[in-house]
Every structure is written in C-alpha cells, then in structure tokens.
Write the structure tokens for this entry.
Amino acid sequence: MNRIITIGREFGSGGREFGRRLAEELHIEYYDREIITEVAKRTKLTEEYIHMVTEQRPHALFPITVGRSINLMADQSFYMVQSVYAEQSRILRELAEKSDCVVVGRCADYILRDWEPFRVFVYAEMESRIRRCQERSTAEEKLSDKDMRRSIQDVDRSRAKYYSFYTGQKWGDKEYYDLCINTTNRDIKELAAWFARLMR
Amino acid sequence: MNRIITIGREFGSGGREFGRRLAEELHIEYYDREIITEVAKRTKLTEEYIHMVTEQRPHALFPITVGRSINLMADQSFYMVQSVYAEQSRILRELAEKSDCVVVGRCADYILRDWEPFRVFVYAEMESRIRRCQERSTAEEKLSDKDMRRSIQDVDRSRAKYYSFYTGQKWGDKEYYDLCINTTNRDIKELAAWFARLMR
C-alpha cells in the first residue's frame, strides 16, 4: 500500500507550502490544485466553479426554498456539487493507488481512509497568519489587517463546513489527525525539512 | 538558554512514558514526579497531599463558606495550595536554569515560558486510552471499561481545571502547543525514538 500524507490547514498557516516542500524533500508526488484541474477536465466544469464548490458545504449554495418547492435550478446545482465531490474522490483514489503522495485539503484524510494516511493538520496563531497573508499578497490584493482577519475567518469557516458536511468530523479537531503542527513564527521551509526527517 | 521540552498529556495517552523515553533518547534530564518529591521536601508536606493539590484547581479544595465568613481552616488550606504552586514554579525554574530537560505536566509550558519551551501535547482516542490503562493496571486496580472511562474523564477534568486556573489557557487546545501527537494504536517507544530524531 502506498504511503499517503494528508495535510489539513488553516488559511494563512503556510500549510500548502509545508505540504509542497515536504513532498519535494521526500521525492514523492504532491497534489493540491492539480486535482481541481483534473476534476474540471472530467466534468467539463470550470476550475473557478470547482474551486468555489469545494470550499463550501453544498446546501449553502442553493436557495432556502429547496425541499419546500420544486426548484429545478437548485436541484441541478446540488447535483453538480455532488458530482464534483464524487469525481474528486475518484481521482484521489486513483492517485493514491498510483504512488506515495502528499495531498493538501480536499477531505483527503477521510476519502483515503482505507490507505491509513498519516493525517497532519497545520495551524498558527491569527496574528502570524495575518502577517503571512500580507507578505504574500500583491499590491492589488492588499487589505487592512482587520479585513485580512475577516477574510481568513471566512475561508476557515467555509472549509470547516465543507469538511464536516462530507466527513461528519470536526475540521481541525486534533482527534481526527495524527499530528498537529503549529507554524506560528516558524520558517516553513525549515519546518518541512525537519518533518521530512521523520517521514523518511 | 537551555532547551526545554514540555509534555502535556491526556490520562492514558502514554504521554508520561513518551516524555521519559524522549529524554532517554536525547540524553537529557527528565522531570515528573521528582518535582513532587522536591516540593514535599521543601514545604514539609506529604507527597500524597501535593499530588492531590496539583491536579485540582484550588477553590475545589475548600468549602464554599470561604470569603463569606472567617474560616481559618479554609484560609490555611488555600494558602498551602498556593505555596505548593509557588514552590513548584521555583523548582521548575531552577531545573530549567540547570540543563536541557523534558518536563511532564505541572503547567511547565506556562511556568517556563521565558525559556520558550517546545510545547508538546500527547493525546489519544478514548478506546485506546482505556486499553492502555487496563494493560498497566495490577489485579487490585482492575476496573470495568465503563469505570475506567469515568476515571480517565475525572483525571482529565481535574487537570484541565488546574491548568486553566493557573495559566488562563485551555488545556489541550492545540493553540497553546507547538506539536500535538496522537498516540492511538501506536507504540510509545517507537514514537519517542522517532520524535527524538526531530529534536536532535
């Protein structure tokens, strides 16, 4: 059975960079947005749409009238969201079957549970996450610290809802991970090199 | 500045054994119950008493009348509990000043914050903790799984209250730790050897 490392991460914690560098250090495959591209190819939906629906729980995406009246639009939308999740799960299983890999996000810890993945969750204090986001924003993306905080909280809230909808587990609750890593004030490159030593 | 590793742990998670083995692997000092012995020596209180009062938040130890009527017994008891904490803090700082070490429990992560300790929290699923406790109980200590679960929950509740009373932080909340390690179904000896590689 291939060795799978899954990375859940708070927005701005450097979790994606951590996962990418960890895979580099270990010379194994790394999957993150590649999965969206593949889902888009197979479902004929746009990458933007897939990105949007894989960060929100399904019933936030269609009107409250669903279930109370016949609403074809909403039915269609719900069906699409479900097929994105199904396609994403299929792709993840194919990749896990192929070789060792690191997968960031996408409920991979849950979807690939039969592979008994090593489940990592990456987090950091809010101030550190704001700083990290500010450093990587372009001039056009610049926000005040207050707006950045709100935006981080929004993304986390969406991720938590999406994760809990599909897995029935609580996103970020240490019970569902093998290791939780605090990246506050730490250099992600060093941290990844450090953890790669554990995983070799 | 000496390198300090502090270990918080859920009861039955194997956290104490993890700390002891980690210290062995790293050839550094290990402190746990040794601290109680030293506090006892300095305060002239019994080790049993100190063990009891360092696992419960102070106001659970004296009657509700305190503060409403003059109660010398309770005053005395409160004073003793506070001096045990003060003495324990003093000892921890002396030890941290002396050499690198691993300290298990005792709010060491908070008391030694000026040393910027590496703060580890060790936890496990309840079923795994019950199994671990059953394995290490003697014939006289044997409990049913149901009673063992209750007893584990009681110890954790006391630790949480003690920790939060003195630190103002939430015990076991990953925010207050650098690394959280899930020991469910894992061999503690292997896990400690593995983590020692990180810490070297």
User: Anything to note?
Assistant: Residues 62-66 of chain B have pLDDT under 50 and may be disordered. The longest helix of chain B spans residues 72-98. Residues 65 and 71 of chain B are 7 Å apart (CA to CA). Chain B touches chain A at residues 121, 123, 125, 172, 174-175, 177-182, 194-195, 197-198 (CB under 8 Å).
